[in-house]
Amino acid sequence: MALRRLHRWKSALDTANTAGLTKRPRIHDLRHTHASWLIAGKVPLPVIQARLGHEPITTTVDRYGHLLESSDGEVVAAVEWAMAAIA
């Protein structure tokens, strides 16, 4: 299994190099890409934290928090919903 993944990684690098890649990616770069895609897919940060094996959630937030979309609209909607329930 590991040999197959290594073969796929080498094949992907060869293709990228042929296409003009100037900087050699590291396998760890795939981890960052994976986390970024999860965030773009709105996967909750605690799920991403567990998947990446980060002990404190602050590690996940510090590393990837800048990728989160502004949630002002969601905050306003939640407050409006709560205020409507009171009225």
What does this 3D model show about the protein?
The chain is an all-alpha fold and 87 residues long. The chain has five helices and no strands. The protein has helices spanning 2-18, 27-40, 45-52, 57-64, 72-86. Helix 3 packs across helix 4.
Element layout with pairings:
Blueprint: H1 2-18, H2 27-40, H3 45-52, H4 57-64, H5 72-86
Helix pairs in contact: 3-4
Distance between the termini: 60 Å
The portion of residues forming beta strands comes to under 5%
Query: Main beta sheet, described?
Result: none
Describe the global form: elongated
Share of residues in helices = over 70%
Overall structural class, as computed from helix and strand content, comes to mainly alpha
Low-confidence runs: none
Keywords:
single chain; 87 residues; mainly alpha; 5 helices; 0% strand; elongated
Short description:
With 87 residues, the protein is an all-alpha fold.
